[in-house]
């Protein structure tokens, strides 16, 4: 039985946990009811607003995709050139000699209770599979755990006797990935480049080399972000959707945006930094998603970040909806929090250098438009729901006409949106990973509108959590 002192705490936690759900539920009910009593003219005006916004987002997405083609071609050209030279005896295929490569600290960050079943496998993989001079790379397993986990922790320490390039660092008192990283940044390792990976990643053996060559080729580059690929795409219908989404994000959207909006983004994992920049930058542990915050602070400082699609790393996606929901809720709230903090970047002066109009508009699109898009998607959903309630369609054709073609110009909005989606998916198909099939792309195309609605709901839920200052951290489940 709970004591009298525990009952208020339990009640408070219950209210804190369920208030966001009540807010989002009320939002959908209230919005749908409003549309049911709105005038026909007002409904038409709002419908056009939603369609125009959707058209803008669709067109920006397809332009990013088209711009990414040049990045893909250049990446393939470099792969082909190096592969051809690699077969010639006595020829150095890479631009930089092995003994001239930068010293690299590769960090694998782990929350041990959640990753105890995979950490030994990942450490062994990193120590044996990376094709980078062993005297110029150090593998650092930096972890925290609220309770001792034996014999695993002892076994990790013993691996240091097997692999000379391995360091295992337990961060006492750490409560987050940011704490782990900030502790490592205080160490004087002598490294020139620092790479950050989550514990579920399998970097391609050439991953560090591709990133290092980009730093060697351009002294102004401060960050190299690699491409993340979901390798468990066949585990469930959800992992299939996420795998294609990741191909679209990392191989199409990010490189295209870097060209279109004049800035790249560090994405939290499979990211490389010049060591001194990162040690000065640090991670802000008070932010729910410290990687998003660090990426935006890098943009604010005008640090040059580029996307290297050849630096591939394979990772796990949540195979069950519950794990996906928790992960994306944390991301949504983290983006909302970071957007509030960094939105002034659109109009204020940069800490160093200048900030072009293109970059300012890109930041506005990334932060403001993305956050507002959650409301536009869900408002359109409520609008359609009000149509269905007031005039329930009797046939599938009537439903399609109600959803897509209720007003003049509907056909054109539909054609433009479908054309943009089709164009983006074709370009994504050209750069798809080896884990994506034709059938997966077809299913993704069919389910994508519903997926967007779910993502809109998650975005709203993240905003509601931010309103009530919800700060429980749910680590993503690993297998």
UniProtKB/TrEMBL annotation:
Species assigned in the record: Ampelomyces quisqualis
Main location: membrane
Membrane protein topology class: Multi-pass membrane protein
The entry's keywords: Glycosyltransferase, Membrane, Transferase, Transmembrane, Transmembrane helix
Localization of this protein: Membrane
One GO CC term on file: membrane
Protein name: Nucleotide-diphospho-sugar transferase
PANTHER family attached to this UniProt entry: CELLULOSE SYNTHASE CATALYTIC SUBUNIT A [UDP-FORMING]
Transmembrane segments: 18-38, 45-67, 372-392, 404-429, 435-461
Example GO molecular function: glycosyltransferase activity
Domain of life: Eukaryota
Residues covered by the Glycosyltransferase 2-like domain: 193-448
Classification via InterPro entries: Glyco_trans_2-like, Glycosyltr_2/OpgH_subfam, Nucleotide-diphossugar_trans
């Amino acid at each position: 039985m709970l004591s009298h002192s525990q009952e208020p705490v339990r009640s408070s936690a219950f209210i804190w946990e369920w208030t966001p759900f009540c807010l989002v539920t009320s939002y959908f009910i209230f919005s749908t009811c409003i549309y049911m009593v709105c005038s026909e003219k007002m409904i038409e005006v709002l419908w056009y607003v939603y369609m125009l916004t959707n058209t803008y987002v669709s067109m920006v997405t397809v332009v990013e995709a088209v711009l990414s083609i040049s990045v893909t071609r250049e990446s393939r050209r470099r792969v082909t050139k190096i592969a051809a030279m690699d077969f010639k005896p006595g020829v150095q295929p890479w631009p930089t000699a092995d003994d001239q490569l930068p010293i690299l600290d590769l960090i694998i960050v782990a929350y041990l209770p959640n990753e105890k079943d995979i950490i030994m496998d990942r450490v062994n993989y990193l120590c044996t599979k990376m094709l980078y001079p062993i005297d110029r790379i150090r593998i650092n397993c930096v972890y925290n755990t609220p309770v001792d986990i034996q014999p695993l922790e002892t076994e990790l320490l013993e691996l240091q006797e097997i692999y000379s390039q391995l360091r295992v660092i337990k961060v006492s008192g750490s409560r987050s990935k940011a704490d782990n990283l900030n502790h490592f940044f205080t160490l004087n390792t002598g490294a020139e480049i620092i790479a950050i990976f989550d514990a579920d990643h399998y970097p391609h053996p050439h991953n560090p080399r591709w990133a290092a060559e980009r730093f060697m080729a351009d002294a102004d580059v401060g960050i190299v972000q690699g491409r993340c690929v979901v390798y468990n795409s066949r585990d469930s219908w959800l992992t299939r959707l996420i795998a294609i989404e990741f191909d679209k994000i990392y191989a199409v959207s990010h490189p295209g945006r870097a060209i279109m909006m004049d800035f790249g983004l560090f994405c939290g994992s499979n990211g490389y930094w010049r060591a001194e920049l990162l040690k000065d930058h640090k991670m802000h542990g008070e932010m729910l998603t410290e990687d998003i915050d660090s990426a935006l602070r890098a943009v604010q400082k005008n640090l040059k970040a580029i996307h290297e699609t050849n630096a591939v790393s394979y990772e796990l996606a949540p195979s069950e909806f519950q794990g996906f929901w928790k992960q994306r809720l944390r991301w949504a709230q983290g983006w909302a929090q970071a957007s509030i903090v960094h939105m002034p970047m659109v109009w204020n002066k940069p800490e160093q250098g200048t900030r072009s109009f293109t970059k300012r508009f890109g930041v506005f699109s990334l932060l403001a438009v993305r956050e507002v898009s959650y409301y536009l998607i869900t408002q359109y959903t409520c609008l359609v729901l009000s149509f269905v309630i007031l005039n329930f369609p009797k046939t599938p054709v009537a439903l399609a006409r109600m959803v897509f073609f209720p007003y003049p110009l509907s056909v054109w909005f539909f054609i433009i949106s479908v054309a943009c989606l089709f164009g983006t998916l074709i370009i994504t198909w050209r750069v798809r990973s080896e884990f994506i099939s034709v059938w997966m792309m077809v299913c993704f195309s069919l389910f994508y509108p519903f997926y967007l609605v779910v993502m809109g709901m998650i975005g709203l839920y993240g905003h509601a959590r931010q309103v009530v200052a919800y700060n429980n951290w749910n680590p993503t489940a690993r297998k």
